[in-house]
Design goal:
Strand content: 35-45%
Oligomer: single chain
Number of domains: 1
Low-confidence stretches: none
CATH topology: 2,3-Dihydroxybiphenyl 1,2-Dioxygenase, domain 1
Length: 126
Amino acid sequence: MHRSRLYGLFIDTPHRDAPAAASFWSQALGVPARPVPGEEQFTALPGAFPNLTVDVQAVDDAPRYHVDIETDDVDAETARLIALGAVEVARWLDCHVLRAPGGHLLCVVPVHSDPEVFAAHARTWP
């Protein structure tokens, strides 16, 4: 048995455009733009959605959006989503990058949110 929840929306933006995108989304959503220490490709937009992370992520690819699903068991959640039809396309650190049916990317990541937020909002899976 494990638990998981939608953790965040990531606005994937080419490196050269990431600062302007972070500024735009910060102003559009009325929240600060803050670099994420130790993960320089991310600029957090805290407060954009209660209990949901919104970041601009600098990528070496086309602009897109993707979601992260955080879990207390990355392998079990990855296996559950693959059984539902997702395909694993990459790994980065402890993250498993999957492509869902329909072509959208999602990442399965270890718990990053406040433990109380995770406990209150995560679903339990057998």
